[in-house]
User: Fold argininosuccinate lyase from Funneliformis geosporum.
Amino acid sequence: MTSAKLWGGRFSGKTDPLMDKFNASINFDKKLYEADILGSQAYAKALARRNILTTEEKDSLVNGLEDVLKEWREGTFIIREGDEDIHTANERRLGEIVGSVAGKLHTGRSRNDQVATDLRLWAREEAKKLLVYLKQLIGAAVERAGKEIDVIMPGYTHLQRAQPIRWSHWLLTYAWSWQADAERLSQIIDRLNLLPLGSGALAGNPFNIDREFLAKELGFKDVIQNSLYGVSDRDFVAEILFWSSMTMIHISRFSEDLILYSTSEFGFVTLADAYSTGSSLMPQKKNPDSLELLRGKSGRVYGQLSGFLMTYKGLPSTYNKDLQEDKEPLFDAVDTLAGSLQITAGVLSTLTIYPERMKQNLSIDMLATDLAEYLVRKGVPFRETHHIAGEAVRLAEDRNTTMDHLTLEDFKQLHLAFEDDVSLIWDYEKSIENRCSLGGTSKQTVKEQIVKLTKWLNE
Assistant:
């Protein structure tokens, strides 16, 4: 090759060494090594189909690229000075292996459509891995929900005790959130699975390259129909970063609940030692550091999204070097999610719950709504029963007792519709079983949720 730089022929002066470092992306885009090689192998085959390469040249390039791929996988690939990005590094090493025929590989291709293809290939495969981790997490929640369906606990609004619910119902809250995350990720995978290669620098490929062949060879469902769009679109990066942020929101909220539930004040759960740490000063401490890290890493992912959007928002059409800033946020978010999903599944699978402690934290005032509903079943309008139930709560508080210790006469003073069967209200299990509409916390409706999620996972 006549120049150490792929683009160096137009320049006679030397680049500032600081600019070389500033411009280089090899330290992070080397993560794309496999996608870059797969794309180049497919492109060599496409060039041969247009008789730009002979069969022997195509085979030489494909086999040489396989050798480069093996070096990357085995950790023996050596990055040299002048390897400013993964494309330069791979092409340089290919030339060392197969000789000058390596110079034919880039015919009609630009790093603009090359990197867009690499990034989509990489993102597609990494997103599939994240989908597996996400389904494993959902599976862990569904499994526990089935085994611990009889455990009841206080449900909260505004962090105040509200109504009794099943522990399983709480678990499935997050299982459904994560299922929505999985659906979103599947849709993103489908949308990004379009081929940019063959778009050239911006105007298209001059050698009538068979882009449908390239798409099939690389597993893309279709080709991008506009070359300008092909080299400049990074919406899929923004979508993955947004997806990562939403998923981390759900993980962070789950973590926050468990951090609270693991405190001495709640005492509902204890984390396994594998996901806890101690204090360097206080020997008695068992800290939920795994959950705190998950909660903290959510902010990191949100930052990657906002940072990339600020880069992306003002770019003129086609490729601009600003787009080099798409990779580090994407790589970091994907790595963070891969770790976070697996740690969350580990925490969830191994934590210990304390059903008796949960039950002890139920209180009769949590059945005030049931008292109102009792009167509704007697024909009293709910707006009136809500007020009456509130008066019963206040009466019990004034007497420094609980509503289940009020007499029938006390209740009749509030409304004549009260009868002896009012005493049957003070049953947490019955309250839960009354919530039997689809999506409620009764045993049957929780079982129905488990069946639906299990069916979805198996599909």
